[in-house]
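Record type: monomer structure entry
Structure origin: computed from sequence
Chain ID: A
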Amino acid sequence: MPADRFVALLKSAGVTAVADVRSVPFSRRFPWFSGKALAPRLAREGIGYLPFGDALGGRPRDETLYRDGIADYEAMAARAEFRAGLDRVVEHARRHCVCLMCAEREPLDCHRCLLVGRALAQRGFAIGHILATGTIEPQAATEDRLLATIKADPDLFRDRAARLADAYRARTQKVAARKKD
C-alpha cells in the first residue's frame, strides 16, 4: 500500500496517533513503512507515532513464550510487560484516536487483532479494524468472521466466549510467529 493511501485511510478514520506494535518496525519491501521513515511522515500530517513493539510485538524474544515453536499469545498477554504496554496505549487513547499498526492487512492474520485488540476489547474498549477498503469493521464482526473459520462445535451448550477462545487459539496456531532455530 502506498504511504499516501495509508495516511488517507488514517485521516478518514479520524486517527491522531499510530501505535506501531511490530516487534521490528522495519520493512525492506515497503521502506516508507519503516519506523524511521514513517514517524516523520505521520508527523507532517499531524499524526503521532508511538512505538510499542517492545511490549506489544508479536515476535517475543523470550524463548519461554513459544509453545511447540509458535508464539503463545495467551502466555504473552499474561505478562506484566504486556499489560504495562496496554496501559500505555490506554493512556494515549485518552488524548488521541489511536490506530494499532502492524504488517498484515487482514486483522485475522495479525497479532494486533488476535492478541492486542482482543486484550483491549476485554478491557471494554470499542475496537474497529480499518480495512484496505477504508471500511471500519467492529471487533464483534471480526470475531464473527473468526468463528466462521472453525468447524461447528457439536456442543450446543457452549457459550460464545468459550467457542471464541477456541477460535482465537486455532487461528493463533495458523498465523503466529514461529521460533527461529
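Annotation 1: The mean pLDDT is 93.
Annotation 2: The chain is about 45% helix and 10% strand.
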